[in-house]
Specification:
Chain lengths: 284, 736, 454, 175
Amino acid sequence: MSITNLLQNWSDFRQQHPSDERPHQEYKWAMSIDLDLCTGCNACSVACYAENNLPAVGKEKFSHGHSHHWLRIERYWHNEDREYADQGAQFLPMMCQQCEAAPCETVCPVGATNHTADGLNSQVYNRCVGSRYCNANCPYKARYFNWYDYPTTADVWPAPMEQQLNPDVTVRGKGVMEKCTFCVQRLTVAKSNARTEGRSVHDGEVQTACQQACPTGAISFGNLIDPESRVAKQWEKQQVKLNHDKQAKDAVHDGDKLRGYRILENLRTYPSVMYLEQLREGAI
Amino acid sequence: MIENSFNRRDFLKVLGWGGATVALSGCGNTSVEDGREYVTSYVETADYIIPSIGTYFNSTCAQCDAGCGIMGRVREGRVLKLEGNPDSPINSGKMCGLGQAGVQAHYNPDRVREPLLRNGDKGEAITWEKALQLVSEKVASANPGSVAFLTGGVSGHVKVLLKNYLDAIGSDQHYVYEAVAPSVVRAANKKAYGVEMPRLRLDRAKVVVSFGADFLGTWVSPVHFSRQYAKFRKGVNGERGVLVQVESKMTITGANADRWLAIRPGTEGILALGLVNALSAAGLTVPAEVAAAVKDYTLDRVSNDTGVSVEHIGKLTALLKDRSPSLVIAGGAAEGYAHGSQNAAAVALLNQVLGNVGKTVEAPASMPFPQMAPITGNRSSLQALNDSIAQDGVKVLFNCGANPIYSAPASMNMKESLKKVPFKVAFAHYMDETAMEADLVLPLNSSMEGWGTVVPEYFAEGAQLNIQQPLMEKLHPGTLGMGDVLLALLKQRRPAEYSGYEDYYAYLKNAMVAIKGALGGENEDDDVFWDSVLSQGVVKLTSSSNALVSSASAAGLQLPPPAVEDGTYPLRLIPAVTPNMRDGRHANEPWLQESPDPLTTIVWDSWVEMHPKTAAKLGVVEGDIVEVASKNGAIKGQVYVYSGIHPDVISVPLGYGHEAMGRYSKGVGANAFKILDPVFDQQTGELAMYETRVKVTKAGKRVIVVKDEGPAGGNQSGRRIALRMASGKVNLAEEV
Amino acid sequence: MGKDIREDIAWAQINKDVLKSLENPKKLYWVILLIAIAMVGVAVGCEIYQYQTGMGVSNKSNSHVWSLYIATFIFWIGMSHSGTLLSAILHLMHADWRKPIYRFAEAMTTFSLMTAGLFVLVHLGRLWMVYYVMPYPNERWVWPNFQSPLVWDMFAIATYLSSSVIFLYVGMIPDLAICRDNIHAGWRKKLYTVLSLGWEGTDRQWRNFRITYLTIACFLIPLAVSVHSIVASDFAMSNMPGWHVTSFPPYFVAGALYSGCAAIITLFVILRYVFKFEEYMTLPIMRKLVRLTFAIAMVWTYLNLIEFSSVWYGHDQTAKDQLIFKATGPYAPYFWAMIFFGSILPLLLAFKRFQTHLPLLFVVSIFLNVGMWLERWMIIGPSFAHGHYPWTWDHDQWPSLVQWGIVFGSFGWFTLLFMVFCKVFPSVSMYEVKEMVYHRTLALKNKPAVKGEH
Amino acid sequence: MSQRHLLALFNDFDEAVAAISELRAANIKGFDFDDLILKSPIEHPEVETVLGDRPIKVQWFTLAGACMGGLLAFTLVASAQANFFSQIKAGKPIVPLPPDFVLTYEMFILGGVFITILGFLICAGLPAKRSPLYSAKVSEDQIGILVKGDEAAVTAFKAIFTKHKALEIQEEAGK
């Protein structure tokens, strides 16, 4: 019964979750993206459209900011003053950062977005009432709202195009919020396969659609708990700690030799995506 | 991956059932209802089909000619998504956006669904029997020599059949046309190295200087080069490769360069020779003959002509000298001029002087079966066809995989000259501009429905033969594979030879099994061999490769001085080949329209790129609608201003502005092909794409440019979002 | 200054005058009513269209997900606070002059809350799932997220609405008894008989009535404050630059009282004219009201300055950019209009001759509320347009006609409710006016008239 | 011996008070002073001086209501959170106190208000049937005194009322 439950496990319920003293148990999915390898070719983005049933909304809706690219490639210039962009551009793939302390989660009135046991920031479509508070509170603006009912909108999925829709992924109706899920449908399959074989998912066994497509392999994805996973090693090497809003390395003076950083870390969102700074040659 | 041992036919039956389930759910697949397929229920299905579990089948991506191996995820008889085939040396499991969009070509609602015969100005549906009958009559009635085929790049068994058919009717008119292809560079390479396209080893180079070769986006085999680029950036023992891009309009490769050098259009060759000169001055051993040839290309003169600063030329020289091996690539920007061959040759010369030949420029594997080797398309062939038509040497024209009416410059007046051809047959996927003009339209299978073999234009490692196999049952019963059609046509001509084959599948299997020895299956049972081939999707061929010419020679190199400005047409038009649109054949795939152009982030429209200076001179700002007028026509477009382009040029992307094709492409943007000036490369006769002179005038309105980029543009206004640091600081070797 | 009310009005006269407002009104009343209904019609149309087609038609974007609905929601919530102020706070302070005007002020509270509530619904992407927000027991142990300020809103507004309805009703019981005694036929008779609960004005009833009324008043004050600070925490609790400000709750409360008072002035003028309440809604009372409004206006101005200067002085660059953007970007005109209407215009109220100049006050009070509405919009619009993440900035996002239509209609809806209320219930508290008169006579009896009065 | 009811209406509150105090002074046989009820159009706290203060209990309801509301709210919210594990919000405890306190506060007030009203209705004996002896005048401007007494007392009542110039004396119809 609830009240007895409440009283018996009070101390548990008062625990911050997750935290250094209470890390994730088996899985903590995380990503690292090497901006020096990202060429901005958009393959990841299109792969995401294919995998996650994202609608191509068309010019008119796109112009109103109704686009649905869960993974968008942002293009930055570093040459405000110079005549030419003569050190090229910088491309940055931005998707839901699956924050450990996600601002979107606490504000959802109906609890449609929650933290899962393996560290994902889940979005429950059929619970969502569309208050859009989560997006308002997302510093990365990585959440996308179904402004229209795309399945019934002309030329979004005209027959026979709807046959391409991935049956593993819900086709969202109007009025719900959606965002990158780290291809949770793939993770689920991998996890259940592993479970049936009585082991845990090993590194490289499951790939996100964007990672799988990326021609330069700029995106790596895996389980942060597993010390053998590439991602864990990268985070370790770059001295980026998950539950920190300031990294110790930034204090030491040669910390700038490391490329790893997380975007808007200072907002204490604890993102699960680490980026590696882009490099530029000085000799030319 | 699937097991080798299963019966292909069962598979198709099951897919038939998959199709049927789809059909019953009203998705327009009628193949079962009209008894073309018979149904096998899932109760007695083959054991590799498990409802709700995706099965992967290997095939080959047909979105461009790179020939990446793909792996189609099939569920309940429907192909859902394409992944890269890890066993394919070209893309080793990776894919580009264009390839990903292949499923949308397959499921596209605007596909042609049954043969159409022109009746007045509309087509009426006819049966294939009737269609083929008609074709054989027309061909029979025509003089054998006057039957012509216009195709895109072809290879594999289709090419063989095509060849055989042409022989059968005794015609030699086969024109292979590609609107955007590095034909000039190929020719120049042939001269310089003895091969059209050497194998480029970015992964081994420490410095890559690319003269406008967009190898990360659109050039030759982008995914493969991207794979190499990754290795190149990681470097051998942590020495990060340095990329320098020389071009007048930034490509996505340029956007990733450590140094992007905006060069005055057409002077790429001058810079190359200037570098040779500077290198020899810096003490690099250069053949006397070459040194003599380039001695006039002094630092100042080169800097003056090209607009590249002395400082940068100096640094570049030092870089090339110190960090060896390097790799110099000539691409679109170099070849797109009347003296394109010269530019390319100069670049090749630079490579040879640097001693890269044999190190980063390797001999490509040769195809052991020349009859299947790809014919690479070019633009001059279209010119040839045009001439042949003009002397009315063409009575029956088969058109397949080419859309000349859309992609030929207005000056060629393709539409009119095609009217001179009495009977035009178009093998079409969409009702594109050329199909609209055809007398008979024959709908083709999508690359996910048909059988075939593909030989990539560019071998990543050894020679290879790619398999193309159906990933699902036909969507539209009225379509046929190119192979099947050719086979049918051949049966009309050489029944003795071909009537034995029930369909192209039978022919293909037979043909493959016949050469199984060469394909590494000599002591395997036919079916086992065939199944393994199908499951692998890629057959690696044992091949030799002959050495390259590495002796540098400047013989016959003379480069014109930088072009003088034309008063009435002050600007140069660079028709940009973008990763999404390429030559526009995939414009009807919404994913590609919606995925923002990497540099401008513009969607669903074309645009006119210009440098802030140019914009200021013209008094226009972003969003202004301007008219871009050349001697051969004018197009309108929205202005996009940014500093990734030389002030002397403006750029309009290709691939937009279709007048037909489908709901997603028709009327979207403007077609830059149309206004290209008829200027040709002197040596190869290729259309010089970058030679068009234009004037830009305001056309009144101003619109809000629909793009992903916000009002902040590429500016982070102080937030720490996209960070960049000097490569000197990090030790990549230590990184994971 | 003149007296709040004449002590020599016969009590019977009071009854007569007020009860008259329940009978056939001027034509103007019907005109107002019809206009209101038409406006509601517009809003309903827009909402149906939006419901059918999807939120997209309101023209918000993924980086700009909130707009007029939320802004107007805050506006109406704010409007509701003045009623409480007048009835509860002034009641505790025994400020007699509130008595003739607090009734309609309270009605205003109730109805603006009802209007505000609608905006929450209109704003939702899936209106048909709105019950998910309520905590109802269910088999799956699924509950709303009690951490969300929106859920706090839901609780707070529910509490506030029910409490203020009760407050309004309880305070009205004696007057309902009067209506019962004076109206002898028709559905009204039944209505009043039922609602007056058989009130006879016995000493026992009066005694409990007093304490009850007092207690609820005491509850209402902290409640009102909490309601608007919770609405403020919708923003203050988020991490949007320009929202994450400590001074938001008091700022919101002040703004609320401000717009409320302005609204009371407006309605004061209207009622005084439409129902001929000159005797009761007298100019001296108006003067007091205007002075109160002026004071609050200055408080609001101050808090505004505090907010800006703390942002300016603070080290949060993003918030600073945000502020600069508001003052200089595409939203600048509205921003400065807000400053003008909110802080400059009320200075007029400081001048004695304007304090009783009804036509002017009418116009000014309306503009004050325009200013307050702009304030709410300045909280929503620019913040979204210029948030943490430059790539997704969206400077030219402009609400579509659908949004404007619904906002426009909400004013009709409010007017409709209010006007109907004034027709069915006494909008001036009769028994309290009598008390007022009574106390005044007593006062006069005890001390001789001072010079300067009359 | 049957009881009779009388209602006297006065124009002036002071007269009414005077009358009451006299009724009290002259302890009329068969008349219990506590049965006297004063009916007035407005509240007259002053009457307590003559009526003697009669206790008010509403505030106890208030207290009980408020506490109950608060307590219920907290337990409901907290145990709901405790039993809804999917609702783990990153970085926050499963039962976070600050939000729950906000809700507790609101419900505290709601409970208080509701139960106060209940208390009011109970204490004031509402809703009630109107007694036969009631004059609309009372809700207008006159003060009514309702007394209850034996037959014998009636004359005495009347005497006092008339003495204090009662405008009108209603007598209960029937015996």
